[in-house]
Design brief:
Shape: extended
Strand content: under 5%
Oligomer: single chain
Helix content: 40-55%
Amino acid sequence: MVPFPAKAIMLLIADYQQNRESAMKGDKGGMADDEFTGETVDTDDGDDWDDQGDGGFDGVGFDDEWGENLEEEDDTDPELINQGVYNLNMTEYLSGFLQTCAASNISNFGAIADQVLDHGEKKILKSIIS
């Protein structure tokens, strides 16, 4: 079991990497290959779940439209556009956050990162804080 502080660091690094790649390559509906490990971080090949049977219901009883937002989203909502978070550059924000955590060794950040991060995650973190 991975302790929460370690998992939080791993998730922040993964989110940083996803946002950085998305900004560099453009959003293509999924995350690109991780340039440090060469592994695909996330894919959506469009295949249905294995347990989905005939009639559009899965093994639990949810139909095909369960969980989908059936209302159109309006990206031009003035209230949304005027929110600071709407224009937030997540790559810069996460970079600054991780730099602060590393520089101040918040909650023993350095030791946790050394103990639990794999080689690719350590390489990404090093590129962020240097």
